[in-house]
Write a structure and sequence with these properties.
This protein is of the alpha+beta class. The chain has 24 helices and eleven strands. The strands form three sheets. Strands 1, 2, 3, 5, 6 and 9 form a six-stranded mixed sheet that branches. The chain binds ligand FFI and flavin-adenine dinucleotide. It holds the Pfam family Acyl-CoA_ox_N.
Length: about 675
Amino acid sequence: MSLLPKTVNPDLQKERDNASIKAEEFAVWWHGGKDRLKIKRDLELHILDDLDEDIYRFPNLSHEEIYNAAIKDFIKLAKKIQELKVERNYDGTDIWPSSVLWGAMPAGNPLAVHCGMVIECIRIQGTDEQFEKFGKACQSFSMTSAYAQTELGHGTFIRGLETRADFDHHTDEFVLNTPTISSYKWWPGGMGQSANHCIVPANLYIDNVCKGLAMFVVPIRDMETHAPLPGVDVGDIGKRMGFAGVNNGYLGLKNVRIPRTNMLMRHSQVHRDGTFVQSPVSVLTYFTMVYIRCLIVRNVATQLSMAATIATRYSAVRRQSPINPNEPEVQIIDHLTQQKKLFPEMANSIAYKLAFTKLYQLYETTSQDIKHGEFSRLPEMHSLSCILKVLCTSTTMAGVDILRLACGGHGYLSSSNIGNIYLDVGASCTYEGENTVLLLQVGRFLMKSYRSALAGKKLAPTVAYLQNAVKEKSLCHWTGSWEDLLKILQIATAHKTHITYENLMARLKAGQTEAEAANNTGIELTQAAELHGICFVAATFLEEVTGPHSKPRSPALNKVLGNLLELFMISTVLKYMHEVLRVHKLSEAEIRSLQTRLEDSLKAVRPDAVVICDGFDHHDRNLFSTLGSYDGNVYERIFEEAKRCPLNKQPVPEVIHTHLKPFMKSNL
Ligand SMILES: CCCCCCCCCCCCCCCCCCCCCC(=O)SCCNC(=O)CCNC(=O)[C@H](O)C(C)(C)COP(=O)(O)OP(=O)(O)OC[C@H]1O[C@@H](n2cnc3c(N)ncnc32)[C@H](O)[C@@H]1OP(=O)(O)O
Ligand SMILES: Cc1cc2nc3c(=O)[nH]c(=O)nc-3n(C[C@H](O)[C@H](O)[C@H](O)COP(=O)(O)OP(=O)(O)OC[C@H]3O[C@@H](n4cnc5c(N)ncnc54)[C@H](O)[C@@H]3O)c2cc1C
C-alpha cells in the first residue's frame, strides 16, 4: 500500500502561496509564450503518462535489461510522436531532437543519435535526392542509424582517422576498410545492436590518392534479419559510467562495398568517371558537429534546471538546525550558504538557455547562408557553438554536483536522480568535441580576431566588443551597474586576449613554429576563450532583462528576472575577480559592496525560488526524483523506494544462508 499522502507538503505550499509571481507566468516566459508551453505540455501529456515506470529504476537492472527496456520505451515514444504529427519542438528545433523526449528516457536513448544527429547530418551533407532516400527512411524508422566518426585510436583529431573508402572504377562502388585495431569505430551511440546503417566519415581515396574526409552511408545489418552484413564486425562496447541504454558500439569494416551514390555529396562529389569535385570549404564536413554542439547547450541547460528544481524543492521541505537557538529548526533553504549552492545554478540554467536561443538563431542563419553558397559566418558560428558547449557542460557538471551536495546524504541516493543527471552531463563534457580541445579552437579564433582588431578591420558581431575594449584599457568611471559589470568583463577578456597574443608572438619570434607556440600558449588560450564565452552569456542575459522585450512582461516578473540577473552578474565578476583586478583597480570598499550585493541578491531570490523552479515546468515523470517531486512528499517517497529495493524482497537473502552464516559459525 502506498504511503504517499494526497496533499502537498505544507512548507512547499507556503512557498507557492507567498511568492511574488505565479509559476505559470514564469513558465510562459521560459518556454517562449503560451502556445509553445502548450505544445510542450501536450507532448508530455501524450507521451509520459503511460510509460512503463520500471525504466526509471534502471540501476536495479542489468546492462542487457536496460537496453531491452530502452528499446521498448523508445518505440512507445516514437509511435506516440508519429500519432501527434507535431514537427517543431517548443523552442523551434525539430521535434526529434527534443529535450522533452530526452528527459523521458532516463537510461538514455539508443536511437537519440539517429533522431538528433543523423537525420540532420544527411540534410546538411547530402543532396536533396539523398535526403529523400536516406533521410526520409530515417524519419520513418524504416532505417535506423548511428554516426560513426570516432575510432579507437582517434576521437579529437579527425584528420588522423584511419578508416578508408577506395573508389572502384569498374563497379562504381566504394570499398570501405578499417585496416587496424585503432581504426575500429568506437563509441557511436546506437551502433551496437540498434542501427542497421551508419554514417561513416572516412578518408576518400581515388586511385590511391587521398582526397580528404567524406561521409558515407554504410549498411551494416541485413534489412530483413538484422544480422551483421558480410565484412562487418559490430557490437556494444560494454558498460559506461552513465549512458546505460545508449548502446554505444564498435564497428570493423573489411572490404565492405557500397554504391558510389552512398557518399553524401552536397558539398563534394565523386562522378562516375572518378572525377573528384572538392567542397568549396573543407570544414563543411564538420558542420553536423556544430549543430549538435548547439543542441547540447539547450539540453544541458535543461538538465541543470532539473537538478536545481530537485534540490530547491527538497531544501524547502527539509528542516535542519535552528538559526536562532531556542527557535524551531528552519527550512534548509533559509541558511544563506544553502542559498549560495542553489540559486546561482538556477540563474546559470536560465543564462545558458537564453544563450542557446541566440546561438540557434545564428545556426539557422548560417545554415541558410550555406545553402546559398555563402560561408563567411562559419568561423564565428564554429567558435560560438564550441564555447557555449564547453561553458554550459562544464558549469552544469560542477553545478549538478553542488546541487547534489545541497541535498546532503539523500542527494547521494540513486532515487534522487541527481547522480544520473550528473553522469549524463559528465559525458557531454567529452562527446562532440572534448572541452579543452574546443576551448583551444576558440582561443585560435580570438587570436585571429585580435589580429584583425589591431589592423582596424571589422570583427564578427560576437567579438566586436574586442575592438572598443582594445582601445579602452580600463573603465573610466565605476558605478557598479550591470552595464559596468559587463564592460569590466569585456575589458578583462580583451586584456587576456592581448597578453595571450603577445606571448604567442614572443614564442614565434623566438623561433617556435606556429603549432609549438600555440601548444605552449595553450593555458592562456583556454582562459581567454572561457572569458570570451562568459561575456557572451552575460550580454545575452542583460539584453533579455533590460532590452526591449518582444512580449510584454509584468513588473513582478521583470523584478524576479532582474534579481536572477543581479545574482548571475555579481557571482560572475567575483569568480573572475583576479582577471578584473588586472584591468581595473577596484577599491576594498567596492569589492565589499559586491559581496554585500551577492548576499542581498540571494535574499531577493529566496521568496521566489520554488516558483521559479515550478516555472521550469518539469513533469514529475521527467524528474523522477524522491527529493524533487511537485508535492514535496520526500520522506514517504524515499521510504517507498527503499521498500522496492530488490534486496528487500526476502527477509533473509540466499547468500546469508550459503555464505555468511556458515562463516560466522566457523568462527564460533
Ligand atoms: C521517440 C523519442 C525520440 C527521442 C529523440 C531524442 C533525441 C534527443 C536528442 C537531444 C538533443 C541532442 C543532444 C545531443 C545528444 C548527443 C548524444 C551524444 C552524441 C555524441 C556524438 C559525438 O561525439 S560524434 C563525434 C564528435 N567528434 C568531435 O567533436 C571531434 C572533435 N574534433 C574536431 O572537431 C576537430 O578535429 C578539431 C578539434 C576542430 C580540429 O580539426 P582540424 O585539426 O581538422 O582543424 P584545425 O584545428 O587545424 O582547424 C582548421 C580550420 O577549421 C576550422 N574549423 C574546425 N572545426 C570547424 C567547424 N566545425 N566548423 C567550422 N570551422 C571549423 C578552424 O577554426 C580552423 O580555421 P582557421 O584555419 O581559419 O583558423
Ligand atoms: C557517452 C559518449 C558518447 C559518444 N557518442 C559518439 C557518437 O555517437 N559518435 C562518435 O563518432 N563518437 C562518439 N563519442 C566519442 C567522442 O566524440 C570522443 O570521445 C570525443 O570527441 C573525445 O575524443 P577522444 O575520446 O579521442 O579524446 P582524446 O582526444 O584522446 O582526449 C584525451 C585527452 O587529451 C587531450 N587532448 C587531445 N587532443 C588535444 C589537443 N589537440 N590539444 C590539447 N589537448 C588535447 C584532451 O583534452 C583530453 O584531456 C562518444 C563519447 C562518449 C563518451
